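User: Teach me something about this protein's shape.
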Amino acid sequence: MESIRALAKNHVLGNPTRLAIMLYLLPRERTLFRDLLSVLEVTPGNLDSHLKALERAGYVKVYKVIADRPRTAVKITEKGAEETAEYMRALKDALSAAISPQG
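Assistant: First, the predicted structure itself:
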């Protein structure tokens, strides 16, 4: 029951697109905006909205990279990595509790 409460409390990661962003960033630490667009197959405006919600929560940092041309990059924060891992643990615990025999 505690794992279900933990899942319900996290309104940021409860959104499938934001969770997908975090799961994509977790092993990479950073990526370009255009790469997220390609992987998630969402519109630029939709992705921007989700990234703003994640940035307000302190889960990611969005910044500009100047190379051959300006690009937008996204980096997962320590808080974002920790809370995503905790959210996934709670999800696993809730799933285990739901499918285990009630004996």
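Now, about its shape. The chain has one domain: 2-97. The first helix runs from residue 2 to 9. If you'd like, I can walk through any region in more detail.
User: That's plenty for now, thanks!
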